[in-house]
């Protein structure tokens, strides 16, 4: 468990170094238009969601989740030095698509490894530990990129080079220290196939979990919009804007383990829905239009609590509804549905902001989220 968390920590340092400088590098460094950056951002965030089903299914079919996760990590590591050679929109788009393919391949097998290594009653804590270590990397990465840009003569190339070295270290730790576990299907189990993976939705408990993740994802405003709304509400100077994601990541880091343990004790679905109530409260604070000095801290704390109560907890909940031989594919179904729902929510919110303005769009999102939380709370889980 700690070895996998270390791999994710190191890999997130590498990834977030690039994510922190990529918009400025593309627009200011290479002269890309905002439209070009928008297309690349769509590639960057959309490809991994579509590849997750493949990664989860292949991990189940081969019974080698570690090998698939390692392939994904290695593919993403390979893309970092390629950014040094890509200077046109098609080339950069291809590199980013390859990087997100690696992320999509590794996500479900990695989460399957976590769920298989932990006792069922401790899965919330296990995912909490992993997500906390993962988020520590998200905190370190932008700060490291900031220091490199300040100290290096050719800052962007230096960031990409260091990022590639860090990513290679993450792959090495995975190969050397993460134990592999080959899953064998039960004698009476259905053959592992993509059709069988999709057929997992016939399980009522998994279907309800996936439906809740989908509905709530459709009402979740993307992080970038939350930070823009917070700046608009408080008048935070542009030079401090880049630090807002660190506030969310810091709260996520501090709360992931405690909320994971709480989920094991009081029920994972309760904590998952509670996380969305925290997000709803953050929307409410943004809608007040108050200029209190504590508003940014409160919103970022609630935003981080939302992730701490939902990200790993959802996987812990879904794992209990999926047999071991289909663990990767089952988790990938939930992840993909949620990711695509959030992508659709971002498009819808951006269109609403353009047509109605920021506050009316957020008010609609808040109402829809409240309705979705209430609807999911009415769904009774199977069993105790």
From TrEMBL:
<keyword id="KW-0812">Transmembrane</keyword>
<dbReference type="InterPro" id="IPR011701">
    <property type="entry name" value="MFS"/>
</dbReference>
<dbReference type="GO" id="GO:0005886">
    <property type="term" value="C:plasma membrane"/>
</dbReference>
<dbReference type="GO" id="GO:0022857">
    <property type="term" value="F:transmembrane transporter activity"/>
</dbReference>
<feature type="transmembrane region" description="Helical">
    <location>
        <begin position="240"/>
        <end position="259"/>
    </location>
</feature>
<feature type="transmembrane region" description="Helical">
    <location>
        <begin position="25"/>
        <end position="44"/>
    </location>
</feature>
<dbReference type="InterPro" id="IPR020846">
    <property type="entry name" value="MFS_dom"/>
</dbReference>
<dbReference type="InterPro" id="IPR036259">
    <property type="entry name" value="MFS_trans_sf"/>
</dbReference>
<feature type="transmembrane region" description="Helical">
    <location>
        <begin position="158"/>
        <end position="178"/>
    </location>
</feature>
<feature type="domain" description="Major facilitator superfamily (MFS) profile">
    <location>
        <begin position="1"/>
        <end position="384"/>
    </location>
</feature>
<protein>
    <submittedName>
        <fullName>MFS transporter</fullName>
    </submittedName>
</protein>
<feature type="transmembrane region" description="Helical">
    <location>
        <begin position="132"/>
        <end position="152"/>
    </location>
</feature>
<feature type="transmembrane region" description="Helical">
    <location>
        <begin position="210"/>
        <end position="228"/>
    </location>
</feature>
<keyword id="KW-0472">Membrane</keyword>
<dbReference type="InterPro" id="IPR005829">
    <property type="entry name" value="Sugar_transporter_CS"/>
</dbReference>
<keyword id="KW-1133">Transmembrane helix</keyword>
<feature type="transmembrane region" description="Helical">
    <location>
        <begin position="271"/>
        <end position="291"/>
    </location>
</feature>
<dbReference type="Pfam" id="PF07690">
    <property type="entry name" value="MFS_1"/>
</dbReference>
<feature type="transmembrane region" description="Helical">
    <location>
        <begin position="362"/>
        <end position="379"/>
    </location>
</feature>
């Amino acid at each position: 468990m700690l070895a996998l968390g270390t791999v994710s920590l190191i890999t997130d340092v590498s990834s977030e170094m690039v994510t922190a400088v990529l918009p400025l590098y593309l627009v200011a460094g290479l002269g890309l238009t905002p439209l070009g950056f928008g297309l690349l951002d769509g590639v960057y965030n959309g490809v991994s969601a579509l590849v997750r089903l493949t990664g989860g299914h292949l991990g189940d079919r081969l019974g080698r989740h570690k090998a698939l996760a390692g392939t994904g990590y290695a593919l993403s590591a390979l893309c970092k030095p390629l950014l040094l050679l890509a200077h046109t929109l098609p080339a950069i788009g291809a590199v980013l698509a390859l990087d997100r393919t690696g992320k999509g391949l590794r996500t479900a097998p990695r989460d399957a490894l976590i769920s298989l290594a932990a006792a069922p009653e401790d899965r919330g804590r296990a995912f909490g530990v992993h997500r906390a270590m993962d988020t520590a990397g998200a905190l370190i990465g932008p700060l490291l990129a900031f220091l490199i840009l300040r100290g290096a003569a050719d800052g962007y190339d230096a960031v990409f080079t260091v990022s590639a070295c860090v990513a290679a270290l993450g792959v090495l730790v995975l190969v050397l220290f993460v134990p592999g576990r080959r899953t064998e299907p039960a004698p009476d189990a259905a053959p592992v196939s993509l059709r069988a993976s999709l057929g997992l939705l016939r399980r009522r408990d998994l279907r309800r979990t996936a439906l809740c993740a989908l509905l709530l994802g459709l009402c979740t405003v993307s992080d970038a919009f939350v930070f823009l709304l917070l700046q608009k509400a408080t008048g935070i100077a542009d030079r401090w804007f880049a630090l807002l994601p660190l506030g969310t990541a810091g709260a996520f880091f501090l709360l992931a383990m405690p909320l994971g343990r709480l989920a094991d004790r009081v029920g994972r679905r309760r904590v998952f829905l509670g996380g969305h109530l925290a997000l709803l409260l953050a929307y409410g604070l943004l809608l007040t239009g108050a200029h209190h000095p504590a508003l940014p801290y409160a919103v970022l704390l609630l935003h981080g609590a939302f992730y701490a109560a939902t990200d790993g907890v959802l996987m812990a909940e879904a794992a209990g509804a999926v047999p071991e031989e289909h663990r990767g594919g089952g988790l990938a179904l939930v992840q993909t549905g949620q990711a695509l729902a959030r992508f659709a929510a971002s498009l819808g919110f951006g269109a609403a902001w353009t047509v109605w303005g920021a506050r009316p769009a957020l008010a609609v999102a808040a109402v829809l989220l409240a309705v979705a939380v209430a609807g999911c709370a009415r769904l009774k889980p199977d069993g105790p």
